Amino acid sequence: MAQDNKISVVINTYNAEKHLREVLDSVKDFDEIVICDMESKDNTLAIAREYGCKIVTFEKKNYTIVEPARNFAVQSATHLWVLVTDADELVTPELRQYLYQYIATPNCPEGLFIPRRNRDMNVLDMGRLRDFQLRFFRRDKVYWPPLIHSIPEIEGKTTKLVDNDKAVFNHLDENYLHDRMEKLNRYSDEELDKRANKQYGLGALIWRPTWRFFKAYVMDQQYKKGLPGLISSYLSGFYQFLIVAKTIEKRKYKTK
């Protein structure tokens, strides 16, 4: 394949008008922006047209997660290198510069994990960069499994962006408690398909939530965010509790 030093940005959307203008402003200097929309009912498409985006549609059907649309979205891009960003994530100028330098490097790995700074109760995470997302890759070397929170599968090598703490995604989702609790319940339902053969018991009910809280609060330095960090860490542990409890309920008590 001929050398392609251009980058397509791919954004999956569904009723994403809230942050979309700000997100598109952050990626407007890339070579192409592809909006893969799941039949939005708000002003998402009007905003995308305003910015001159390439728009493709993926039927929403009964999907409640984005992953089934990821492969279609990525393959709708024109250029060899693809950056996937969500409709509530900003791409910093430093990240854009880094990515173009990256693809200009001979024999660079086919996939790149990019750090993301998250926001809880409107407080931005300024601790160590621990949330890495595999979002930059060659279009011809990737497959994205259609399961919730799945990681793209790369044919080739991957690496992490660890040498520039300003080359990041900035997550705009405020994660207010009402919205986050709704997501935890919905996402934990979707996780059940990935754990169909798991045999969880009392130990998992205790140690998985406890470990996730410890990891978030101590290792990921959520304590630096004060009470919002403490609350977010508890919710991370509670999410693991929901997954384990629902898996036990489904297997042992034969619920649907």
Automatic annotation (TrEMBL):
Residues 8-108 form the Glycosyltransferase 2-like domain. It comes from the Bacteria. CDD domains: Beta4Glucosyltransferase. One of its GO terms (molecular function) is transferase activity. InterPro entries: Glyco_trans_2-like, Nucleotide-diphossugar_trans. Keywords: Transferase. Pfam families: Glycos_transf_2 (PF00535). SUPFAM superfamilies: Nucleotide-diphospho-sugar transferases. Belongs to the glycosyltransferase 2 family. WaaE/KdtX subfamily. This is Glycosyltransferase, group 2 family protein. It comes from Prevotella bivia. The lineage of its organism: Bacteria, Pseudomonadati, Bacteroidota, Bacteroidia, Bacteroidales.
